[in-house]
Amino acid sequence: MKARWSTxxxxxxxxxxxxxxxxxxxxxxxxxxxTQGEQIALDNGCTACHGTNGEGGVGPxxxxxxxxxxxxxxxxxxxxxxxxxxxSIRDPSxxxxxxxxxxxxxxxxxxxxxxxxxFIKSLEK
Length: 125
Known about the structure:
Blueprint: H1 2-26, H2 36-43, H3 47-50, E1 69-71, E2 77-79, H4 82-90, H5 110-122
Antiparallel strand pairs: 1-2
Helix pairs in contact: 2-5, 4-5
């Protein structure tokens, strides 16, 4: 009986890992290669709140965000242009979106921030 379990456990582990990997890959809505900004967002946990496809959730949606009007928690509005997106990534508490908590700080460098901004700009409604 012990020999059966010692064979079965590694097999089940491999199957579980394969299924988990397949489930993660299934979340993207595209077969296109990932952009650099998309990969940076994924690697840094941005997609956990903003969604794998930019659909939002815990954080505001990125899909259709670029050049849209955003209502801020102080009651003002802003156009989500490149400057706003860059500032929001670098200083998440500067202009907080209504209905959402503060985004955690990050350690992205200038090139990484620009790549994420470019990715957000590419996400149309």
